[in-house]
């Protein structure tokens, strides 16, 4: 299969020009057509010689993102279900904030991590996305926003899949997104979320970027975390905390811990106290409490509102900076994997 036109970074296009005996400035023209003008065909790149356009057509392809469904929430959240060229489906979400538009992207078709409360793992992992398939999600979102004179201001890599299990494609995507000749998204306006793939936390720390990192922790100890997140059996809790310390010490950046509260499972005062003791070892951290999303196929229920605030108060008593995630798109099942799971079930029928 031909590579996608969005697979190449700025440097990749420069190298391609060199290998094909073409002037390097053509790379800048292509980047401009792809990410500034956002065209969807080589023929539209009118300042390129016809021979070059034909060569691009011969060697590359545009990503196929066929819209299967689009749902819009009353809070402005827009969720897309896209069909890829091989008929697999992925989700992309645009979230409206007071500070701008954030886009949540998917990095894999399905997920093999197996978190017991998440819809993304239903059906397992089918394949990794190519860099260009991740990039195309942002381009599609920006094209929608173009119609209302707005832009993508931030990105969260929190959609379907485990980004660190598709590490190289994710990093290529990040380099394309942050390049000043393209969409020019500021590094500090991008967050990568991982379930805790320990070796890649070290690797990501050594990348020396300004991109934010969030860890899905969801439990304060090994035993409970292993029940909720099978990945903990592969990368035990103590090893994860050591990797987090390394990240903070190496980068000097604050680390976010995502903690999904599940009624009667991980939301009791003793859980909050134990979590506080663990996180006091990490000087720069923040906890984002997430009321668990109801997934029909899962048994978990939402923590009562007053218990969520009580959990937050305990963490803050121990000087752990804590926020409660604002719900968005709850009326359209905007949580990751829910729309895809519904589509898969319908397809089976």
From TrEMBL:
GO biological process annotation, one example: methylation
Subcellular location(s) of the protein: Cytoplasm
Domain Radical SAM core as annotated: residue spans: 97-331
Coiled-coil spans in chain: none
Keyword terms, alphabetized: 4Fe-4S, Cytoplasm, Disulfide bond, Iron, Iron-sulfur, Metal-binding, Methyltransferase, rRNA processing, S-adenosyl-L-methionine, Transferase, tRNA processing
Database matches in Pfam families: Radical_SAM (PF04055), RlmN_N (PF21016)
Catalyzed reactions: adenosine(2503) in 23S rRNA + 2 reduced [2Fe-2S]-[ferredoxin] + 2 S-adenosyl-L-methionine = 2-methyladenosine(2503) in 23S rRNA + 5'-deoxyadenosine + L-methionine + 2 oxidized [2Fe-2S]-[ferredoxin] + S-adenosyl-L-homocysteine; adenosine(37) in tRNA + 2 reduced [2Fe-2S]-[ferredoxin] + 2 S-adenosyl-L-methionine = 2-methyladenosine(37) in tRNA + 5'-deoxyadenosine + L-methionine + 2 oxidized [2Fe-2S]-[ferredoxin] + S-adenosyl-L-homocysteine
Binding-site residues, [4Fe-4S] cluster: 111, 115, 118
Function (record text): Specifically methylates position 2 of adenine 2503 in 23S rRNA and position 2 of adenine 37 in tRNAs.
Classification via NCBIfam families: rRNA_mod_RlmN
Identification of the protein by name: Probable dual-specificity RNA methyltransferase RlmN
Lineage: Bacteria, Bacillati, Bacillota, Bacilli, Bacillales
């Amino acid at each position: 299969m031909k590579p996608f036109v969005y697979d190449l970074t700025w440097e990749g296009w420069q190298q391609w020009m060199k290998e094909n005996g073409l002037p390097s400035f053509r790379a800048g023209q292509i980047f401009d057509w792809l990410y500034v003008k956002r065209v969807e065909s080589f023929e539209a790149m009118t300042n390129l010689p016809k021979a070059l356009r034909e060569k691009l057509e011969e060697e590359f392809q545009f990503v196929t993102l066929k819209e299967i469904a689009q749902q819009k929430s009353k809070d402005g959240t827009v969720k897309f279900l896209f069909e890829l060229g091989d008929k697999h489906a992925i989700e992309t979400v645009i979230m409206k904030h007071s500070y701008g538009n954030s886009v949540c992207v998917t990095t894999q078709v399905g997920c093999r991590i197996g978190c017991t409360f998440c819809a993304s793992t239903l059906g397992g992992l089918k394949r990794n996305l190519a860099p260009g398939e991740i990039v195309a999600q942002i381009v599609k979102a920006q094209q929608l926003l173009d119609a209302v004179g707005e832009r993508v201001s931030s990105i969260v890599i929190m959609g379907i899949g485990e980004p660190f299990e598709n590490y190289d494609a994710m990093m290529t995507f990040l380099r394309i997104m942050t390049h000043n000749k393209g969409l020019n998204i500021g590094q500090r306006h991008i967050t990568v979320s991982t379930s805790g793939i320990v070796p890649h936390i070290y690797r990501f720390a050594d990348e020396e970027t300004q991109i934010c990192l969030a860890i899905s922790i969801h439990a304060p100890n090994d035993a409970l975390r292993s029940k909720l997140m099978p990945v903990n059996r592969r990368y035990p809790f103590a090893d994860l905390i050591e990797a987090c310390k390394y990240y903070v010490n190496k980068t000097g950046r604050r680390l976010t811990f995502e903690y999904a509260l599940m009624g009667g499972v991980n939301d009791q005062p003793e859980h909050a106290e134990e979590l506080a003791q663990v996180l006091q070892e990490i000087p720069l951290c923040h906890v984002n409490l997430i009321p668990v999303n109801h997934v029909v196929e899962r048994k978990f229920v939402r923590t009562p509102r007053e218990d969520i605030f009580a959990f937050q108060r305990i963490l803050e008593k121990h000087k752990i900076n804590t926020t409660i995630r604002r719900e968005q798109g709850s009326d359209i099942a905007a949580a990751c994997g829910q729309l895809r799971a519904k589509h898969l079930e319908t397809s089976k029928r």
